[in-house]
Amino acid sequence: MFDNLSYKLDKAFKTLKGTGTITEINVASTVKEIRRALIDADVNYKVAKEVTDSIREKALGRDVLISVSPGQLLVKITQEELTALMGGSKEDINIKGDPSVILISGLQGSGKTTFSGKLASYLKKQGRQVLLVACDIYRPAAIDQLKVLGEQIGVEVYAEPENKNALQIAERAIEYAKKSGKKTVIVDTAGRLAVDEQMMNEIAELKLQLNPSETLFVVDSMTGQDAVNTAKTFDERLNFDGVVLTKLDGDTRGGAAISIRHVVNKPIKFISTGEKMENLDVFYPDRMAQRILG
Ligand code: GDP
Fold first, then answer.
1. Which of 20, 28, 65, 104 sits most deeply, having the most CB atoms within 10 A of its CB?
2. Which residues contact 73 (CB under 8 A, 6 or more apart)?
3. Does the annotation list 247 as a binding residue?
4. The SRP54-type proteins GTP-binding domain covers which part of the protein (predicted)?
5. Which of 110, 252, 275 to mutate to test the pocket of ligand 1 (most atoms within 8 A of CB)?
6. Cα 101 → chain centroid
7. Is residue 281 within 6 Å of ligand 1 at its C-beta?
């Protein structure tokens, strides 16, 4: 994960090796390299500039202790700034209501259905009674995919394969959950290959009518700046509560993880690092910053 970015940042800090003091000149060249590394990793230019300006300011404002080299100090400040940029501390999903409804949104192929299964398994392990609902009405295979996942993790899946009305399916599923004592309902919705009006209307309607306690936006981290732009578009229509970044196990450059929180102002809540049901992690900004810095 982020190998290239970690390597370039490490190289940037090494330019300070052998220097005993922080000066405007040596900090400026390191900060320039940090900025270039972030931009190469697909971090939005404005975000990269803001964060590196802040790193420079803080570095120049701090006294270097005898025990800390300028390089170590810059690493520490960069880690603090990246952590803050990614949200500071972890944020939990909201689960309330009887049943509590969690709506899953995103483009097709982003990993929505896989994540729905993972979230169900994660919540089940916390002792919750979960119902998965198949509302991806345009992709018949999605229903089967969810059923297979449900069987694998021991979670019931509600589906109406012949019904093309997502809202009706979800409402009936919630009724069913009430009757069968399921306290948490996860609704997997339809996605398209690109944002389109019909999809947006449909998911916005689901959110309005179902009144979920949590709406999550799932996005493929490999799509870089597109991930951030898509998140912005979805948020403008949906005002979602949190982001799920998927495919962090792949050859992702890291830009989405670093900039999404700052650009969209919504927290990343989970990261997905593989196709298996156990490849799900709660997102901790400080741990991610540590990983980025290698
Ligand atoms: P949906 O169309 O948004 O429901 O996407 P799917 O859940 O069907 O996922 C699309 C593809 O990405 C599938 O082949 C999944 O196995 C795969 N996938 C999902 N999440 C991850 C992940 O975190 N890492 C990797 N490597 N593959 C993933």
1. 104
2. 22, 59, 62, 64
3. yes
4. 267-280
5. 275
6. 19
7. no
Q: Check the annotation: does 154 bind a ligand.
A: no
105: Cβ below 6 Å to ligand 1?
no
For residue 294 the two structure tokens come to 């290698």
Angstrom distance (rounded) from CA 280 to CA 275: 9
Q: Which two tokens stand for residue 264?
A: 């969209």
Sheet hosting strand 184-189, strand order edge to edge: 156-158, 130-135, 184-189, 100-106, 214-220, 242-246, 268-272, 280-282
Residue 191, annotated as binding a ligand:
yes
Burial of 184 per CB tally in 10 Å (0-12, 13-18, 19+): buried
- pTM (predicted TM-score): 0.95
ipTM of the complex: 0.99
Tell me 248's DSSP state. Answer: T
167 is in an annotated binding site: no
Mean pLDDT of the chain: 92
Is 52 touching ligand 1 by the criterion CB < 6 Å?
A: no
> What is the dihedral sign for C-alpha 177, 182, 184, 189?
negative
Which of ligand 1's atoms lies nearest the C-alpha of 107?
A: 3
* Host H or E run for residue 105: strand 100-106
Place of tokens 């420079």: 56
Q: What does the alpha-carbon distance between residue 113 and residue 79 come to, in Å, rounded to a whole number? A: 33
